[in-house]
Structures are given as structure tokens and as C-alpha cells.
Amino acid sequence: ELKVEQNPLFLSMQEGKNYTIYCNYSTTSDRLYWYRQDPGKSLESLFVLLSNGAVKQEGRLMASLDTKARLSTLHITAAVHDLSATYFCAVGNFGNEKLTFGTGTRLTIIP
Amino acid sequence: SAVISQKPSRDICQRGTSLTIQCQVDSQVTMMFWYRQQPGQSLTLIATANQGSEATYESGFVIDKFPISRPNLTFSTLTVSNMSPEDSSIYLCSVEGDINYEQYFGPGTRLTVT
């Protein structure tokens, strides 16, 4: 059974600092997704990572994938308050579109 | 990208009743997914809905409790039957778009059972 774990579960950080959220998964998978969820809202797609060594960046967020280690990271650079949200990673496989979600990381950026 | 709408956006229901949630997509898709997000929790897949066949349910979810219809390639419904307070959750439908394996989520239906 595929398990997806994130850490930390909660993260409180100051504006301007850097930090990394980790996503580990238990079995070989082809696709890794990162989503953002604001309170009371649906999921916003951030990144889709499809191959070993894939790296994608958007603004202050950068995601990477190491399929051999079954690990993805979401790195936050010089955090700003607007990045406060819950971040989920999710794992899927080609030919089977369903996703298994991680536990989520609730990120709070403190001014 | 796919644009997904859900109805209702929220509802408060009495214990023992049923609620049907609708999901409409602006393009034809092969598979639609229904997820549940319990308060403060992550998302759990309830079932996969293919047009023209029975939905495939994940472990812990059964058709009698969560019947699903998929009458065409742009629409699906999920019914939450014989509700109890434990069914209070956000229910989201999802589809995969045609570009880069993106998966899109509807706005969700926030259900409260009293």
C-alpha cells in the first residue's frame, strides 16, 4: 500500500527565511504533485514532477524530485506572508490517474 | 486547463438523510475522481468514476453509502447516503487535464451533518 508522508506537519517561520518541506513516499511512483490549499478553499496546483531529477520553480517556491530516494522537496525562499497556507504533496502513476495525498504541511509565515 | 464546478457549495443536513453532489467539467474527460477531506485532514480518494461503467471504490468506501453516477463525459454525481455527523467533510471532484498530467480540483462541497 502506497503511503505518503510529509514533514513537518506544522511550520511557523519568519518572513525572509528559507525552509524546506519534505515528501516521502513508500513505493515507486511516476508522478509527484504539489498543491496549495488556503483555508476554506479548494486545491491550487503548484507543480507536477514527472522524472527523476526534475526541478521546477515558480516565484519563491521550488520543487524537486528524487525518484530513487522516493523523496520530493518544496523549498521556500525568502518567505512572505502570502505563502501562508497548507501544502500537500500527492503521488500517482501513469495509467492510473488517482492520487495518494500526503498528510499536509500547515505553513504560517510570521511578519 | 479544466474548469470544474460543483453544486451545492455547502449544505447543512440532518442525520439520516442523503445529499447528492454534482460535478460538472467544461471538457470531456475519461475519469473523474471523488475525494473526501475531513476537517483538518488530508484528502482521501473515495472512488473513480468512468463513463459507462460502475465506479471503482477505494478500501473503506462502499457503493451503498456513496453511490456515484457518471451519465456522460462531463458530469458526475456523488450521493452521501444515510448521513451521520462523521460524514461532515469537504467533498471534491477532480479530473486530469490534457496537458502535462495536471490534475484539477473542483471548488468542493462543504457538508455539515447535524
Question: What is the radius of gyration of chain B computed over CA atoms, rounded to a whole number of angstroms?
Answer: 13 Å
Low-pLDDT residue spans of chain A: none
Question: Structural class, from helix and strand content of chain A?
Answer: mainly beta
Biggest sheet of chain A: strands, sense, closure?
A: 6 strands, mixed
Overall average residue pLDDT of chain B: 94
Quickly give the structural class of chain B.
mainly beta
Strand content of chain A: over 45%
Order of helices and strands of chain A: EEEEEEEEEEE
Regarding quaternary structure, how should these chains be classified?
heterodimer
The total strand number of chain A stands at: 11
Percent helix of chain A, as a range, is under 10%
Largest sheet geometry of chain B: 7 strands, mixed
User: What average pLDDT do the residues of chain A reach?
Assistant: 94
Please report the distance between the alpha carbons of the first and last residues of chain A.
41 Å
- Enumerate how many helices of chain A there are, as a single number: 0
Q: State the end-to-end distance of chain B.
A: 37 Å
Most extensive interface between two protein chains, with residue counts = A-B, 22 and 21 residues
Radius of gyration of chain A: 13 Å
Shape of chain B: globular
The total strand number of chain B stands at 11
Count of helix runs of chain B: 0
What would you note in describing this structure?
The complex is a heterodimer of chains A (111) and B (114). Chain A is mainly β and 111 residues long. Helices cover 0% and strands 60% of the residues of chain A. Chain A contains no helices and 11 strands. In chain A, strands 2, 4, 5, 9, 10 and 11 form a 6-stranded mixed beta sheet that branches. The model of chain A has no long low-confidence stretch (mean pLDDT 94). Chain B is mainly β. Helices cover 0% and strands 52% of the residues of chain B. Chain B contains no helices and 11 strands. Chain B has strands spanning 4-7, 10-13, 19-25, 31-37, 43-50, 56-57, 68-72, 75-80, 89-96, 103-105, 109-113. In chain B, strands 2, 4, 5, 6, 9, 10 and 11 form a 7-stranded mixed beta sheet that branches. A 4-stranded antiparallel beta sheet of chain B has the order 1-3-8-7, with no helix packed on it. The radius of gyration of chain B is 13 Å and the shape is globular. The relative contact order of chain B is 0.34.
